[in-house]
Design goal:
alpha/beta; 10 helices; 7 strands; about 15% strand
Length: about 375
């Protein structure tokens, strides 16, 4: 069975159609609102302590669609306010933004939005000039070096670091054991050996990520990293287990209908891992590279259009469809690469029904970790 290449096979759904990432990224938009105070604090500290004449900012895993430009706007807003408070001209600080993602990302869509953004944001709401900004793309994996030594002041990443550089070493392309048959991620009955491989891949990737960014950050530089995690330290009780378990069940249903080869499902693993806060803290501390400013976990509904805080799903079918669109926008490139694109509509129709049934029984939420660190050593 051919091995998935994350660098070439993974990208969010392109364009701006009904199933595109650009149209199905409200979950990420809501997270941006939640982390805004953390991002503002990190940006202000960089301005106040480093006084950069040219501030270099990188958004890692930027994808396409409007969310990365919301991040750019937020940084510009904070820098402009900082200049106002000091009585400095806005053009005393120039901003260089680098938007990074894998080569398969829809950079065409992204930079069409960048041009619109530049035209609409040349001045602030008071009519004054904003700090000049320059925006460039960096198509490459953030599990490799992206920038020269000590050149970046602020790194940001939203909903990316739960993605691994590959499916866990030792699993990719292998046939599952009897305990793990049909699983594409971790479930309550996943074998301990399979769980360990997922955990080891996370530790290897996250440790490498920290090392690479440490080399690229200036001293005093900061990172704000937001990604899917889990509330419970018990890996078998992760919120993502349900989400991906329902996808595995949907794939199994297509096997039962003869639409997917059994061998293809048995050799497919999602290159993801949703860590606990304890796991994240342990790796950061073990690296000895950063001071942790802030770490927390917050929850957000599976359905990105459900803004309620209660435990009631009022329309299971509609919520099921919303969740399925969101997951399809993120997962369809990997699914198509391994199984072929002819199954996509049937798979996500099945997934919609299964998610709807699940939500009617139990309203489930994503656990999201936000981590802020500073290079001080």
């Amino acid at each position: 069975m051919p091995k998935l290449s994350i660098e070439h096979d993974l990208h969010m759904a392109t364009g701006d159609g009904e199933t595109s990432y650009a149209k199905n990224s409200r979950l990420q938009e809501k997270a941006m609102v939640e982390i805004r105070p953390v991002l503002e604090k990190a940006t202000r500290e960089v301005c106040e302590t480093l006084h950069p004449r040219t501030m270099v900012v990188a958004d890692l895993g930027c994808s396409s669609g409007p969310n990365t430009l919301r991040f750019v706007s937020e940084v510009i807003r904070v820098v402009a306010r900082h200049c106002d408070e000091l009585g400095r001209r806005h053009d005393d600080v120039q901003l260089q933004f680098f938007l990074n993602d894998l080569p398969g990302n829809d950079f065409n869509n992204l930079f069409q939005l960048v041009q619109q953004f530049k035209k609409s944001s040349a001045t602030d709401h008071k009519g004054g000039d904003l700090p000049p900004c320059y925006i460039a793309g960096v198509p490459s994996s953030y599990y490799g070096r992206l920038f020269p030594d000590q050149t970046v002041h602020l790194f940001h990443s939203l909903f990316c670091l739960h993605w691994r550089s590959q499916a866990p070493e030792g699993l990719e392309g292998t046939i599952k054991t009897h305990l793990d048959k049909g699983n594409i991620y971790i479930t309550k009955i996943t074998s301990a050996s399979m769980v360990k491989l997922f955990q080891e891949q996370f530790k290897k990737d996250f440790s490498l990520f920290l090392k690479l960014r440490y080399e690229e950050l200036v001293f005093g530089g900061q990172m704000v990293l937001t990604f899917i995690g889990r509330k419970n330290e018990d890996v078998f009780r992760g919120e993502s287990n349900h989400l991906y378990g329902l996808l595995a069940e949907s794939l199994q249903s297509l096997v039962d209908k003869g639409l997917v080869e059994k061998e293809k499902l048995e050799s497919f693993y999602l290159p993801v891992y949703s860590p606990s806060i304890g796991e994240v803290e342990a790796i950061v501390k073990q690296s000895g590279l950063f001071e942790m400013n802030h770490i927390q976990v917050f929850e957000t509904n599976w359905d990105p259009y459900d803004d309620s805080e209660n435990d009631v799903v009022h329309d299971g079918d509609r919520s099921g469809a919303n969740v399925a669109k969101c997951i399809r926008a993120v997962m369809e490139s990997l699914v198509a690469s391994h199984f072929g694109d002819t199954i996509l509509d049937a798979l996500f129709t099945e997934y919609t029904h299964r998610v709807a049934k699940h939500l009617e029984k139990e309203k489930t939420k994503h656990a999201v970790i936000v981590l802020s660190v500073k290079k001080v050593f």
